[in-house]
UniProtKB/TrEMBL annotation:
It is found in: Cell projection, Cilium. The keyword Coiled coil applies. This is IFT81 calponin homology domain-containing protein. The gene is IFT81. It comes from Felis catus. Keywords: Cell projection, Cilium, Cilium biogenesis/degradation, Coiled coil.
């Protein structure tokens, strides 16, 4: 316990508490002061706990502290009875209760700060099920759960980044390396500009290259747009096919069905649903309510230890034995009529159980069938999205397999041809490398000759011009093709757009009206929001200022109050000592013998004299005992010997009496 108090005092004297306690002053604190210290430690962990407990009811203080300790997962020692004593001790500020809590909190302050911070965002608010029936409440609750999950992932990522080992030095090194690369690139660009400036008509060539780049980007954009339109058309065709198939299946089902079979099926479904609604679901609901009530009761009770569980198990066993005895007594008392009724009751209960089991099996089979149908529909949709065809069945699947076999033989032949081509490709690749090396050597020689002649870069610019002209001719050909395709596609799309416009005309009219209303409402909302934000910001700033002022004044008030109490106590102690000293002086100086006797000095001298007399008497008694110890021991030994002698005489007398009585007989 002393080590625990020492640890608490050392930590309270450090940052951020700075209490300046020692072991004596801390141990002499009152219960309210101990509770205030515990509240200060909890406020350091969770800033929401900054409260002056003198201005708060003890019940609210205990409830607030217990809830925070529960969030921090503090486990008090002992069982359920100790839990009640723990609550009472926390209310009254008992030292055996508060010291372990302070020791536990100060040992792991950083860990508990993190836990309290996470608890603000991860403790889920339980919304009753009747409120969740409302769509807005359900959507808000769903959004709340999604935000909670997003917070979890972000917090994990943040922790991983903190522990990943990224340092500012590495980032600075990367930035410096990137800046060096940037400088090198700028230098290379300047060098290339200088080389190009020596060539004739370099501005015209740069302009042509820029136009080529713009045309390439435009070509890529048009190709991308064309691909998007193709995909949209493909998805529209797939949707049309799906709708047509659904229509065919529904017509087929309606053609094959008869009114009698439909009525019979509907009657069976009605019977099953009525049984589920009237019998099965109410029982399940009642059982769930009982279970919920039992769980709420268990949660409301304090935590149980091993001894409590053993006691409960023994109580359960006793109750079970009593139930079995009562059942045996009832069976012994039952009359024959009741026995027959019990048989019928048993049969009825067995039938009801079988009925419930079959209903559950039917429900499970329906759910399984629905899930399988959903899976089948998902798989068919996936296959349609992959290749836009239906799933094959029966003879079509056999034909498809035979086609696959024929294609596999063709594939094997083609695979052999590809292997031969790969071998040839390897040879050609090697020859290409050799030719490239030769080309590089020739280019190097050509550059040296051009430098000697003073026309460096001539061959390079000639090649670039030839390549640009070839690319331009290819682009012109591609433009001609793409423009024809695009004109056809545009005609088709215009026809489709006109059809869709005619179909969407009434919807667009309604949408315009709704958009106008939406714009008006959004304007009002923005105005109100701006007013609210400005008002809230002003109030928040005023509130923060007032809170700071109040906090400072409270701290000053507490300091002054503690200083006042300390000085008051010191004054009272000094007054008492002064009063005692004046009384003693009066009694010692006065001529009255009775007052002198009342003096503390006279009383102490009297007590000393009495104790000295008592010590003298005890020493004399000790001396007398020492002198008479030897004779007394001899006398005691003589008495023991005398007692043995008399006992021996008694035995001899009894033996003699018994012998004389035998002779007379």
């Amino acid at each position: 316990m002393s080590d625990q108090i020492k640890f608490i005092v050392d930590n309270l004297n450090k940052e951020p508490f700075r209490k300046n306690y020692n072991l004596i002053t801390f141990d002499s604190l009152e219960p309210m002061q101990l509770l205030q210290i515990l509240n200060d430690v909890l406020a350091e962990i969770d800033p929401k706990q900054v409260v002056d407990i003198r201005e708060e009811m003890p019940e609210h203080t205990a409830k607030r502290m217990l809830s925070l300790l529960g969030i921090l997962k503090y486990k008090p020692p002992g069982n359920a009875t100790d839990m009640s004593t723990f609550r009472q001790g926390l209310v009254i500020g008992s030292k055996p209760v508060i010291y372990p809590v302070l020791h536990w909190l100060l040992q792991r302050t950083n860990e508990l700060k993190k836990r309290a911070y996470l608890a603000r965002f991860l403790i889920k608010l339980e919304v009753p099920s009747e409120f969740l029936q409302d769509e807005t409440v359900a959507d808000t609750n769903k959004q709340y759960e999604e935000l909670m999950e997003a917070f979890k992932t972000l917090h994990k990522e943040c922790e991983q980044l903190k522990t990943s080992g990224f340092s500012t030095a590495e980032i600075r090194r990367d930035i410096s390396a990137m800046e060096d690369e940037k400088d090198q690139l700028i230098k290379r660009v300047e060098r290339l500009k200088k080389r190009v400036e020596t060539v004739q008509n370099h501005q015209r060539m740069l302009k042509i290259a820029r136009q080529l780049r713009v045309e390439k980007e435009r070509e890529e954009f048009l190709a991308q747009q064309k691909q998007e339109q193709k995909n949209q058309l493909f998805h529209a065709v797939q949707r049309l096919q799906r709708v047509q198939n659904q229509l065919k299946s529904m017509r087929h089902a309606a053609a094959d069905a008869k009114p009698e079979s439909l009525m019979k099926r509907l009657e069976e479904e009605i019977k099953f649903n009525s049984y589920m609604v009237t019998e099965k679901f109410p029982k399940e609901l009642e059982s769930k309510k009982k279970e919920l009530h039992f769980l709420q009761k268990v949660v409301s009770e304090p935590a149980m230890g091993h001894s409590d569980l053993l006691e409960l198990e023994s109580n359960i066993n006793e109750i079970n034995t009593q139930i079995n005895q009562l059942i045996e007594k009832k069976m012994m008392r039952n009359e024959p009529i009741e026995g027959k009724l019990s048989l019928y009751r048993q049969q009825a209960s067995i039938i009801s159980r079988k009925k419930e089991a079959k209903a559950e099996e039917l429900q499970e089979a329906k759910e399984k069938l629905a899930s399988l149908e959903r899976e089948v529909s998902v798989k068919t949709n996936q296959t349609r999205e992959f290749d836009g065809t239906e799933v094959l069945k029966g003879d079509e699947f056999k034909r498809y397999v035979s086609k696959l076999r024929s294609k596999s033989t063709v594939f094997k032949k083609k695979h052999q041809i590809i292997a031969e081509f790969k071998a040839e490709f390897g040879l050609l690749q090697r020859t290409e490398e050799l030719l490239k090396q030769r080309h590089e050597n020739i280019q190097h020689q050509l550059r040296t000759i051009e430098e000697k002649k003073g026309i460096s870069g001539y061959s390079y610019t000639q090649e670039e011009l030839e390549r640009v002209s070839a690319l331009k001719s290819e682009v012109d050909e591609m433009k001609g093709r793409t423009l024809d395709d695009m004109s056809e596609m545009v005609k088709k799309l215009n026809s489709l757009v006109s059809e869709k416009k005619s179909a969407l005309a009434p919807v667009i009219k309604e949408l315009r009206q709704l958009r106008q209303k939406c714009q008006e409402l959004t304007q009002e909302c923005d105005e109100k929001k701006s007013q609210y934000d400005s008002c809230a910001a002003g109030l928040e700033s005023n509130r923060s200022k007032l809170e700071q002022e109040v906090r400072g004044l409270r701290e000053e008030c507490l300091q002054e109050e503690s200083r006042y109490h300390y000085t008051n106590c010191m004054i009272k102690n000094l007054e008492v000592q002064l009063r005692r000293a004046t009384d003693e002086m009066k009694a010692y100086v006065s001529s009255d013998q009775q007052e002198k006797r009342k003096a503390i000095r006279q009383q102490y001298t009297k007590n000393i004299a009495e104790q000295e007399n008592l010590g003298k008497k005890l020493r004399e008694k000790q001396k007398a005992v020492r002198e008479s110890h030897g004779p007394n021991m001899k006398q005691a030994k003589m008495w023991r010997d005398f007692e043995q002698l008399m006992e021996c005489k008694k035995q001899c007398f009894l033996k003699q009496q018994s012998q004389t009585s035998i002779g007379q007989d």
